[in-house]
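Quick one, probably user error.
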Protein backbone atom coordinates (compact mmCIF):
# COMPACT_ATOMS: atom_id res chain seq x y z
CA UNK A 1 0.00 0.00 0.00
CA UNK A 2 1.23 3.61 -0.72
CA UNK A 3 2.47 5.54 2.35
CA UNK A 4 0.84 8.70 3.63
CA UNK A 5 3.59 10.89 2.17
CA UNK A 6 3.20 9.23 -1.21
CA UNK A 7 -0.55 9.80 -1.18
CA UNK A 8 -0.08 13.43 -0.29
CA UNK A 9 2.38 13.81 -3.11
CA UNK A 10 0.03 12.07 -5.54
CA UNK A 11 -3.02 14.07 -4.48
CA UNK A 12 -1.19 17.38 -4.06
CA UNK A 13 -2.72 20.49 -5.71
CA UNK A 14 -0.87 22.02 -8.60
CA UNK A 15 -0.81 25.80 -8.96
CA UNK A 16 -2.39 25.87 -12.39
CA UNK A 17 -4.41 22.58 -12.47
CA UNK A 18 -7.24 20.96 -10.49
CA UNK A 19 -6.72 17.96 -8.20
CA UNK A 20 -6.33 14.69 -10.20
CA UNK A 21 -5.23 11.08 -9.64
CA UNK A 22 -2.20 9.69 -11.46
CA UNK A 23 -3.65 6.19 -12.08
CA UNK A 24 -0.64 4.89 -13.97
CA UNK A 25 1.70 5.87 -11.19
CA UNK A 26 -0.51 4.24 -8.54
CA UNK A 27 -0.70 0.95 -10.46
CA UNK A 28 3.04 0.95 -11.13
CA UNK A 29 3.92 1.49 -7.49
CA UNK A 30 1.41 -1.10 -6.31
CA UNK A 31 2.83 -3.72 -8.70
CA UNK A 32 6.34 -2.94 -7.52
CA UNK A 33 5.33 -3.69 -3.94
CA UNK A 34 3.48 -6.94 -4.84
CA UNK A 35 6.28 -8.41 -6.97
CA UNK A 36 8.41 -9.78 -4.07
CA UNK A 37 5.34 -11.49 -2.60
CA UNK A 38 4.45 -13.07 -5.97
CA UNK A 39 7.99 -14.34 -6.43
CA UNK A 40 7.94 -15.91 -2.98
CA UNK A 41 4.58 -17.57 -3.59
CA UNK A 42 5.75 -18.86 -6.98
CA UNK A 43 8.87 -20.38 -5.47
CA UNK A 44 6.83 -22.21 -2.84
CA UNK A 45 4.45 -23.55 -5.53
CA UNK A 46 7.36 -24.75 -7.67
CA UNK A 47 8.83 -26.63 -4.74
CA UNK A 48 5.48 -28.28 -4.06
CA UNK A 49 5.13 -29.39 -7.71
CA UNK A 50 8.69 -30.70 -7.70
CA UNK A 51 7.94 -32.71 -4.58
CA UNK A 52 4.86 -34.25 -6.20
CA UNK A 53 6.84 -35.11 -9.36
CA UNK A 54 9.57 -36.84 -7.36
CA UNK A 55 6.96 -38.82 -5.45
CA UNK A 56 5.28 -39.89 -8.71
CA UNK A 57 8.56 -41.01 -10.29
CA UNK A 58 9.48 -43.00 -7.21
CA UNK A 59 6.06 -44.65 -7.20
CA UNK A 60 6.35 -45.63 -10.87
CA UNK A 61 9.87 -46.99 -10.41
CA UNK A 62 8.90 -49.18 -7.47
CA UNK A 63 9.29 -52.90 -8.30
CA UNK A 64 6.09 -54.92 -8.76
CA UNK A 65 4.87 -57.12 -5.98
CA UNK A 66 6.14 -60.70 -6.30
CA UNK A 67 3.73 -63.13 -7.97
CA UNK A 68 2.25 -65.96 -5.97
CA UNK A 69 2.46 -68.35 -8.98
CA UNK A 70 5.15 -70.99 -8.72
CA UNK A 71 6.87 -72.26 -11.86
CA UNK A 72 5.00 -75.29 -13.12
CA UNK A 73 1.62 -74.33 -11.66
CA UNK A 74 0.42 -72.83 -14.97
CA UNK A 75 0.47 -76.28 -16.58
CA UNK A 76 -0.77 -79.43 -14.99
CA UNK A 77 1.89 -81.90 -16.08
CA UNK A 78 0.07 -84.71 -14.35
CA UNK A 79 -2.90 -84.37 -16.73
CA UNK A 80 -3.09 -87.30 -19.15
CA UNK A 81 -2.12 -86.64 -22.77
CA UNK A 82 -4.85 -87.03 -25.39
CA UNK A 83 -5.04 -90.51 -26.83
CA UNK A 84 -4.00 -90.59 -30.47
CA UNK A 85 -6.30 -93.53 -31.08
CA UNK A 86 -9.30 -91.26 -30.46
CA UNK A 87 -8.40 -89.02 -33.42
CA UNK A 88 -10.42 -90.11 -36.45
CA UNK A 89 -9.80 -89.18 -40.08
CA UNK A 90 -12.37 -88.53 -42.76
CA UNK A 91 -13.61 -91.53 -44.75
CA UNK A 92 -12.22 -92.01 -48.24
CA UNK A 93 -15.18 -90.33 -49.95
CA UNK A 94 -14.65 -87.16 -47.86
CA UNK A 95 -10.88 -86.80 -48.21
CA UNK A 96 -11.17 -84.55 -51.28
CA UNK A 97 -13.99 -81.98 -51.29
CA UNK A 98 -15.28 -79.72 -54.05
CA UNK A 99 -13.11 -76.63 -54.78
CA UNK A 100 -10.59 -77.80 -52.16
CA UNK A 101 -6.95 -78.73 -52.60
CA UNK A 102 -6.19 -82.27 -53.70
CA UNK A 103 -4.99 -84.10 -50.58
CA UNK A 104 -1.44 -85.40 -50.37
CA UNK A 105 -1.74 -88.84 -48.80
CA UNK A 106 0.82 -91.13 -47.23
CA UNK A 107 1.34 -94.59 -48.77
CA UNK A 108 -0.65 -97.52 -47.42
CA UNK A 109 0.97 -99.13 -44.40
CA UNK A 110 0.23 -102.54 -45.94
CA UNK A 111 1.82 -101.76 -49.28
CA UNK A 112 -1.45 -101.48 -51.21
CA UNK A 113 -1.74 -99.11 -54.16
CA UNK A 114 -4.56 -97.90 -56.42
CA UNK A 115 -4.02 -97.21 -60.13
CA UNK A 116 -6.68 -95.48 -62.23
CA UNK A 117 -7.25 -96.98 -65.69
CA UNK A 118 -9.55 -94.90 -67.90
CA UNK A 119 -9.54 -94.07 -71.60
CA UNK A 120 -6.98 -91.44 -72.54
CA UNK A 121 -9.75 -89.21 -73.95
CA UNK A 122 -13.45 -88.64 -73.31
CA UNK A 123 -16.04 -86.28 -74.79
CA UNK A 124 -17.03 -83.04 -73.09
CA UNK A 125 -20.47 -83.36 -71.51
CA UNK A 126 -22.35 -84.53 -68.47
CA UNK A 127 -22.48 -88.26 -69.25
CA UNK A 128 -20.57 -90.64 -66.91
CA UNK A 129 -17.26 -92.02 -68.15
CA UNK A 130 -16.55 -95.68 -67.37
CA UNK A 131 -13.21 -97.17 -66.38
CA UNK A 132 -11.49 -99.34 -63.79
CA UNK A 133 -9.30 -98.93 -60.71
CA UNK A 134 -6.72 -101.58 -59.88
CA UNK A 135 -5.71 -102.46 -56.30
CA UNK A 136 -2.22 -104.00 -56.15
CA UNK A 137 -0.26 -105.51 -53.29
CA UNK A 138 3.21 -103.98 -53.66
CA UNK A 139 4.50 -105.44 -50.36
CA UNK A 140 6.45 -108.66 -49.81
CA UNK A 141 3.76 -110.39 -47.77
CA UNK A 142 0.17 -111.51 -48.15
CA UNK A 143 -2.46 -108.83 -47.47
CA UNK A 144 -5.89 -109.91 -46.24
CA UNK A 145 -8.89 -107.74 -45.44
CA UNK A 146 -11.80 -105.97 -47.09
CA UNK A 147 -12.77 -102.75 -48.87
CA UNK A 148 -16.02 -101.04 -49.89
CA UNK A 149 -17.63 -102.06 -53.17
CA UNK A 150 -15.79 -99.38 -55.16
CA UNK A 151 -13.17 -96.66 -54.58
CA UNK A 152 -13.82 -92.93 -54.49
CA UNK A 153 -12.66 -91.08 -57.61
CA UNK A 154 -11.52 -87.46 -57.82
CA UNK A 155 -11.23 -85.20 -60.86
CA UNK A 156 -8.80 -82.33 -60.34
CA UNK A 157 -6.84 -79.75 -62.28
CA UNK A 158 -3.73 -77.95 -61.05
CA UNK A 159 -4.30 -79.42 -57.59
CA UNK A 160 -7.91 -78.18 -57.22
CA UNK A 161 -10.77 -80.65 -56.78
CA UNK A 162 -13.45 -80.23 -59.47
CA UNK A 163 -15.53 -83.36 -58.85
CA UNK A 164 -15.48 -86.45 -56.65
CA UNK A 165 -17.55 -89.59 -56.15
CA UNK A 166 -20.75 -88.90 -54.24
CA UNK A 167 -24.18 -90.25 -53.45
CA UNK A 168 -25.38 -93.22 -51.46
CA UNK A 169 -22.61 -95.59 -50.36
CA UNK A 170 -23.42 -99.28 -50.73
CA UNK A 171 -22.72 -101.38 -47.65
CA UNK A 172 -21.41 -104.35 -49.63
CA UNK A 173 -17.76 -105.30 -49.08
CA UNK A 174 -15.09 -106.72 -51.34
CA UNK A 175 -12.90 -109.42 -49.81
CA UNK A 176 -9.18 -108.81 -50.34
CA UNK A 177 -6.62 -111.62 -50.27
CA UNK A 178 -3.59 -110.63 -52.32
CA UNK A 179 -0.19 -112.23 -52.50
CA UNK A 180 2.78 -109.96 -53.29
CA UNK A 181 2.33 -108.52 -56.79
CA UNK A 182 -1.29 -109.64 -57.13
CA UNK A 183 -4.14 -107.22 -57.83
CA UNK A 184 -7.89 -106.93 -58.21
CA UNK A 185 -9.97 -104.42 -60.16
CA UNK A 186 -13.05 -102.31 -59.47
CA UNK A 187 -15.37 -101.04 -62.18
CA UNK A 188 -16.38 -97.44 -61.61
CA UNK A 189 -17.35 -94.18 -63.31
CA UNK A 190 -16.84 -90.45 -63.00
CA UNK A 191 -18.92 -87.55 -64.29
CA UNK A 192 -16.98 -84.68 -65.93
CA UNK A 193 -18.89 -81.83 -64.26
CA UNK A 194 -17.93 -79.01 -61.90
CA UNK A 195 -19.17 -79.25 -58.31
CA UNK A 196 -19.29 -76.54 -55.64
CA UNK A 197 -18.96 -76.24 -51.88
CA UNK A 198 -22.73 -76.54 -51.40
CA UNK A 199 -22.71 -79.95 -53.10
CA UNK A 200 -20.76 -81.44 -50.19
CA UNK A 201 -23.46 -80.35 -47.75
CA UNK A 202 -26.03 -82.82 -49.03
CA UNK A 203 -26.24 -86.57 -49.56
CA UNK A 204 -25.65 -86.17 -53.30
CA UNK A 205 -24.64 -83.48 -55.76
CA UNK A 206 -27.17 -81.09 -57.27
CA UNK A 207 -28.74 -81.80 -60.61
CA UNK A 208 -27.64 -79.85 -63.68
CA UNK A 209 -24.03 -79.15 -62.72
CA UNK A 210 -22.05 -77.53 -65.58
CA UNK A 211 -19.82 -79.71 -67.73
CA UNK A 212 -16.07 -79.33 -67.52
CA UNK A 213 -14.47 -77.59 -70.47
CA UNK A 214 -12.12 -79.19 -72.94
CA UNK A 215 -8.64 -79.82 -71.58
CA UNK A 216 -6.46 -82.15 -69.53
CA UNK A 217 -7.56 -83.31 -66.09
CA UNK A 218 -6.15 -85.56 -63.37
CA UNK A 219 -7.95 -88.66 -62.11
CA UNK A 220 -7.10 -90.26 -58.76
CA UNK A 221 -8.68 -92.81 -56.44
CA UNK A 222 -8.78 -93.59 -52.71
CA UNK A 223 -10.35 -96.43 -50.77
CA UNK A 224 -10.64 -97.58 -47.16
CA UNK A 225 -9.03 -100.95 -46.44
CA UNK A 226 -9.79 -102.90 -43.26
CA UNK A 227 -7.02 -105.32 -42.36
CA UNK A 228 -7.94 -108.81 -41.20
CA UNK A 229 -6.85 -109.72 -37.63
CA UNK A 230 -4.79 -112.54 -39.15
CA UNK A 231 -2.30 -109.88 -40.25
CA UNK A 232 -1.20 -109.44 -36.66
CA UNK A 233 -3.58 -106.68 -35.60
CA UNK A 234 -5.36 -107.08 -32.28
CA UNK A 235 -8.40 -105.39 -33.81
CA UNK A 236 -9.39 -104.49 -37.38
CA UNK A 237 -7.35 -101.50 -38.52
CA UNK A 238 -8.55 -99.02 -41.15
CA UNK A 239 -6.00 -98.02 -43.77
CA UNK A 240 -6.41 -95.35 -46.46
CA UNK A 241 -5.15 -96.60 -49.81
CA UNK A 242 -4.30 -94.20 -52.64
CA UNK A 243 -2.05 -94.03 -55.67
CA UNK A 244 -0.73 -91.85 -58.49
CA UNK A 245 -2.92 -89.62 -60.64
CA UNK A 246 -3.76 -90.43 -64.25
CA UNK A 247 -4.35 -87.83 -66.97
CA UNK A 248 -7.47 -87.79 -69.12
CA UNK A 249 -8.24 -85.34 -71.92
CA UNK A 250 -11.77 -84.04 -72.42
CA UNK A 251 -12.81 -82.81 -75.85
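Nope, works fine. Designed sequence:
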Amino acid sequence: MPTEDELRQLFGRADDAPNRLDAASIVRRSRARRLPRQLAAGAIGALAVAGISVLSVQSLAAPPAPSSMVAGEAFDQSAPAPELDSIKRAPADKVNLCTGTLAELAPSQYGLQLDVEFPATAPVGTEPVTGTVRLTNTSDREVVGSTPLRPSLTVSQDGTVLWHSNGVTLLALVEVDLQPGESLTYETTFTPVLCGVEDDLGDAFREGLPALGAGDYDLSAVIDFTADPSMGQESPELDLVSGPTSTIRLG
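The helical segments are 4-11, 23-61.
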